[in-house]
Amino acid sequence: MTTAPGQAPVAQPGPPRHPLDPDPVRATKARAVFALGLIGALTGLFIGGIVPATVALQLARQARREAYTSGGFLTGAAWLRRGERLAWAGLVLAAVSVVAAVVLGVVRLADTPYGQDFAPNVD
Fold it and tell me: Residue 34 belongs to what domain range?
């Protein structure tokens, strides 16, 4: 089998786009979700990660709704997934630290003597 010399024909990737269709662009909320999720995961053990993680999850919900209504012209789903995972990790870390603090508090409360502690020479 032989091939003819010259350039190979270039195939178009799909049907031609309408000239009025917007260009696909990354959603600005996707990057914000990732940043807030990262902050939530990094500060999750210090209980401060609850607020940015919650905001990240709310923004992710809005961004997914906007991406759906845009008909595929808003991208950034990978950033949204990563940000949501980091936000959930931050919430889990915060919950773990709250549970650990409650357990430590209960153990310390159990170690303290109950009632008034008198000196050994007092009846």
Answer: 25-110
Tell me phi and psi for residue 37, to 5 degrees.
-65, -40
Whole-angstrom distance, CA of residue 46 vs CA of residue 2:
69
What predicted TM-score, i.e. pTM, was given to this entire model? 0.73
Would residue 43 count as lying in a domain?
yes
pLDDT digits (tens, 9 = 90+) for 39-85: 999 999 988 899 999 999 999 999 999 988 888 888 889 999 999 99
49 falls within a domain: yes
Q: Is residue 63 part of a domain?
A: yes
The number of domains in the chain is 1
